[in-house]
Amino acid sequence: MSHPSVTPIPSADGSAPFGTAWLPELAMGVDLAAHGYVEEELQLTGTATVWHHPDARGPSVPRTAGVPFRTRVLVRRPADPGAASGFVQVEPLHPDLDSALIWNAVHPWLLREGHAWVGVTAFAHLAAQLRDEIDPARYAGLEIPEEGQHYEIVAAAVRALVAGDLGPVRADRIVLGGMSATGSFCRIFLQEGFHERLTGDDGRPLVDGYLIGISSGGAGAAGYPPLCAGDPEPPADDPRRTVRGHGAVVFEVLSETESETHAGVTRDDSDADDDRYRLYQVAGTAHIEARDSVLTNIQQYEEAGGRRPAFTVIEQRSDARLDLYLCGALAAMRTWIDGGEPAPHGERLRVRPGTEELERDADGIALGGIRPPWVQVPTAAYAPHGTPSDECEPPPAWMPFGRPEMLARLVGTMRPFAVTEILRRYGSRAGYLRRFAAAARAQADARFLLPEDAELLIHEAPRRWRA
Predict the structure, then answer these.
(1) Structural contact between residues 376 and 367, judged by C-beta atoms closer than 8 angstroms
(2) How far is CA 161 from the centre of its chain?
(3) What's the structural domain count of the chain?
(4) How far is CA 352 from the centre of its chain?
(5) Distance (Å, rounded) from C-alpha 210 to C-alpha 230?
(6) Are the CB atoms for 367 and 349 separated by under 8 Å?
(7) What is the 3-state secondary structure (H, E, C) of the chain?
(8) pLDDT (tens digit, 0 to 9) for every residue of the chain, 467 residues total?
(9) Spatial separation of the C-alpha atoms in residues 108 and 453, rounded to whole Å
(10) Which sign, positive or negative, has the C-alpha torsion 67, 69, 74, 78?
(11) Disulfide engineering: 56 pairs with which of 159, 232, 274, 293, CB 3.0-4.6 Å?
(12) 32 neighbors 40 (Cβ within 8 angstroms)
């Protein structure tokens, strides 16, 4: 991997970066200026080796060395470098429309704390989609010839960040994080040696922590993808599917959906210096939740002539907030990286022996795990799956789901209790709200939620009562 070069990407005819934080004419996204932040888009050019497994159980080795690439990097940072915390969240952008899923989930915490965020277009089909379909004028130079370059492309972006080539971004601490497919990316990055090869002049790894979000190492090729096209999938019992010590702080944060396939690769937490690890399994959450999004990608894609297929599920969508637990995990991770108190331990979700089914109580609520206030003080039973409606359309080839049923299996749903049952449990709305508030603040005291996010849930609790 060569040292990358970085150049600005100029706006063509006043266009905005794809996936920009803010579309002011629609008041869509996050107004970075209101938070004292700026957004910059840069072109990253270099070479990257494609790695592969000649033997499914053997080590990874180079297949093709020094393949040139030209991609883009989005940077969001405090406009005043003196206001920066020095913490940077780096995210490989998701294969579905280059979406910034970590940013979408944790941006309130990043902006409150003065942290920076860096998103990297790393997948070959996305470079082609940006160049050929979405904005040919702006992205005419993008080129990622081979899909297997994405690991070293992200490593090149981290090198450029540390070297100061991505602008005045303080990078005292770097966390690489992703969700779903990019959560699996982070698992591969750790387990296949990319972390150890990404070092500074002093030999120290440049990445201090990893957030592996909503990705199960036991979920076949989804949880442990092949390194490149034609590479064999590691067997189900391959030990690489279980994250081991790499010197960095590593969090796996899973919903009920991923926890169903994670039992066979589950490991104990660890506080060892060379293996600081936590697994958080959050009850009453799902891979896809109905919370509001701040992403602009779909709007820009459709304005460029693209079309998303129709998709709905027949059940009521879940009102769970896994995003708030991701904020709590990152805050605990940062404290731990900085030498502070180790992160709290979370109870594991219970799985029926010999199955991929979670154990549930008489109401259908999962047992065990970290228990949010909507699980401790429920007005509904939560499920990590949905059923596609008759209105669903087949997805296009570039989407990561071949059938609507596959996508619906990831959608969180809820079955509200009868009004008589809710009144039997809590007596009144006032009684419910008081118990919910106590449960939310207890989660903050346990450091699973940030205090600000516990108060946000308390503020939203009346809507759960009405629902």
Answers:
(1) no
(2) 20
(3) 1
(4) 27
(5) 27
(6) yes
(7) CCCCEEEECCCCCCCCCCCCCEEHHHCEECCHHHHCEEEEEEEEEEEEEEEECCCCCCCCEEEEEEEEEEEEEEEEEECCHHHCCCEEEEEECCCCCCCCHHHHHHHHHHHHHCCEEEEECCCHHHHHHHHHHHCCCCCCCCECCCHHHHHHHHHHHHHHHHHCCCCCCCCCEEEEEEECHHHHHHHHHHHCCHHHHCECCCCCECCCEEEEECCCCCCHHHHCCCCCCCCCCCCCCCHHHCCCCCCCEEEEEECHHHHHHHHHHCCCCEEECCEEEEEEEECCCCCECCCCCCCCHHHHHHHCCCCCCCCCECCEECCCCHHHHHHHHHHHHHHHHCCCCCCCCCCCECECCCCCCECECCCCCECECECCHHHHCCCEEEECCCCECCCCCCCCCCCCCCCHHHHHCCECEEEECCHHHHHHHHCCHHHHHHHHHHHHHHHHHCCCCCHHHHHHHHHHHHHHHHC
(8) 667 999 999 776 778 999 999 999 999 999 999 999 999 999 999 999 999 999 888 889 999 999 999 999 999 999 999 999 999 999 999 999 999 999 999 999 999 999 999 999 999 999 999 999 999 999 999 999 999 999 999 999 999 999 999 999 999 999 999 999 999 999 999 999 999 999 998 999 999 999 999 999 999 999 999 999 999 989 999 999 999 989 999 999 999 999 999 999 999 999 999 999 999 999 999 999 998 999 999 999 999 999 989 999 999 999 999 999 999 999 999 999 999 999 999 999 999 998 889 999 999 999 999 999 999 999 999 999 999 999 998 887 777 677 888 899 999 999 999 999 999 999 999 999 999 999 999 999 999 999 999 999 999 999 999 76
(9) 10
(10) positive
(11) 232
(12) no
Q: Is the dihedral of CA 367, 369, 374, 380 positive or negative?
A: negative
Residue 206, token pair as written in the block: 């440049």
Residue 398 structural domain: 5-466
**pTM attached to this predicted model:** 0.96
State both tokens at 274: 């060379």
Alpha-carbon distance 179 to 209, whole Å?
15
